[in-house]
Amino acid sequence: MLFRNRFLLLLALAALLAFVSLSLQFFHLIPVSTAKNGVSSKSRKRIMPDPVTEPPVTDPVYEALLYCNIPSVAERSMEGHAPHHFKLVSVHVFIRHGDRYPLYVIPKTKRPEIDCTLVANRKPYHPKLEAFISHMSKGSGASFESPLNSLPLYPNHPLCEMGELTQTGVVQHLQNGQLLRDIYLKKHKLLPNDWSADQLYLETTGKSRTLQSGLALLYGFLPDFDWKKIYFRHQPSALFCSGSCYCPVRNQYLEKEQRRQYLLRLKNSQLEKTYGEMAKIVDVPTKQLRAANPIDSMLCHLCHNVSFPCTRNGCVDMEHFKVIKTHQIEDERERREKKLYLGYSLLGAHPILNQTIGRMQRATEGRKEELFALYSAHDVTLSPVLSALGLSEARFPRFAARLIFELWQDREKPNEHSVRILYNGVDVTFHTSFCQDHHKRSPKPMCPFENLVRFVKRDMFVALGGSSTNYDDACHREGF
């Protein structure tokens, strides 16, 4: 009996050791013998994918919800982070407008019912919303550059008009402004308490959604600001190119990029099938439905949790949405690979980047004007800037996206200045093409300002190829 018990105990121990050994091999905690060529001596079927080499398939609904940027808890951000011996000198903020009503409607369907009046106790909520409404109502006599002075200062229609900023869009930028206030004003004292009008630079396109987004961010940043100190300049071009907008080569890059998009769409049989199904539902030709850009309206339904439209022929549904959104994601991926958009971006973004480094250079000389610059813009503004900077992996600008350039001075070496680039609160400085290798050669936590200057003044043209050394030559070079 005793012998049998000992035998059973030894058998159990052996089984336990075998199990532990197999487990350790499974989790790669002990090595598995390999052949000389590096292949496993036994051909094993992989049970679990390696998350490093096999990333999960992109989820189109997840990507769309990131794009919506639905306000929730305050996000963590890396703005304003620097060693104690660095002093913040100036900040330059590029934003995309907040959540808006669609620019297009799906033909023969009812428009999504979104209320564009601002209601302080309605979700999404912000503690400064009621005060913002009150302050905007006092700004009717504000002096803005024409035609901005004819635009409403906040959204106010019970049923949103096409392209109108929503309450969600206002709250998104109130949050952005408050976040920047906590960092740049309360922590770093970028502006004095008695700040003056010439210490701000404010510019927006002539759309109500960009002006209102800029005002919402500004109110979060400078609550109850003095209207007499506020002056928004009007920018006619979405590229913010001011007097440097004529650029034939840039337009040629854009035409080739649009041709690439067209050919990619033709190859996507599932996309064409989906457009065909949706066209039958709304009883219009497929070409008409496609021209109506249905994804724009569908995103509004998704962001505001409104059901997709139905007709007597059926309903537009989530599967249709997934196919179109997946194609958008594939288009962005191919766009990065083909590089045509990069050429467009380098020329499209140069004027605004050149203006920005000009303001930074003046700040390095000790001048106190335009310490805080705000450009209230569009996705078609931010996207070329991100691409030109080499941030190829950056997501397409979501609603209320923010791209920030920080200029810092080393107190221990006052003549040395550095920059940080942040996208939606993430420090992407060392992902930019002009500073991606700097941290490998230097222990300094920021990028030398001269790197950015050299990139804008010279390297952007080098990246285009050819012999151009300035913007005008690059825009008009022959033989492209």
UniProtKB/TrEMBL annotation:
<dbReference type="GO" id="GO:0050650">
    <property type="term" value="P:chondroitin sulfate proteoglycan biosynthetic process"/>
</dbReference>
<keyword id="KW-0378">Hydrolase</keyword>
<dbReference type="InterPro" id="IPR029033">
    <property type="entry name" value="His_PPase_superfam"/>
</dbReference>
<dbReference type="InterPro" id="IPR000560">
    <property type="entry name" value="His_Pase_clade-2"/>
</dbReference>
<dbReference type="GO" id="GO:0000139">
    <property type="term" value="C:Golgi membrane"/>
</dbReference>
<keyword id="KW-1133">Transmembrane helix</keyword>
<comment type="subunit">
    <text>Interacts with B3GAT3; the interaction increases the 2-phosphoxylose phosphatase activity of PXYLP1 during completion of linkage region formation in a B3GAT3-mediated manner.</text>
</comment>
<keyword id="KW-0472">Membrane</keyword>
<comment type="similarity">
    <text>Belongs to the histidine acid phosphatase family.</text>
</comment>
<protein>
    <recommendedName>
        <fullName>2-phosphoxylose phosphatase 1</fullName>
    </recommendedName>
</protein>
<keyword id="KW-0333">Golgi apparatus</keyword>
<dbReference type="GO" id="GO:0010909">
    <property type="term" value="P:positive regulation of heparan sulfate proteoglycan biosynthetic process"/>
</dbReference>
<dbReference type="InterPro" id="IPR050645">
    <property type="entry name" value="Histidine_acid_phosphatase"/>
</dbReference>
<comment type="function">
    <text>Responsible for the 2-O-dephosphorylation of xylose in the glycosaminoglycan-protein linkage region of proteoglycans thereby regulating the amount of mature glycosaminoglycan (GAG) chains. Sulfated glycosaminoglycans (GAGs), including heparan sulfate and chondroitin sulfate, are synthesized on the so-called common GAG-protein linkage region (GlcUAbeta1-3Galbeta1-3Galbeta1-4Xylbeta1-O-Ser) of core proteins, which is formed by the stepwise addition of monosaccharide residues by the respective specific glycosyltransferases.</text>
</comment>
<dbReference type="Pfam" id="PF00328">
    <property type="entry name" value="His_Phos_2"/>
</dbReference>
<keyword id="KW-0735">Signal-anchor</keyword>
<keyword id="KW-0812">Transmembrane</keyword>
<dbReference type="GO" id="GO:0006024">
    <property type="term" value="P:glycosaminoglycan biosynthetic process"/>
</dbReference>
<dbReference type="GO" id="GO:0016791">
    <property type="term" value="F:phosphatase activity"/>
</dbReference>
<keyword id="KW-0325">Glycoprotein</keyword>
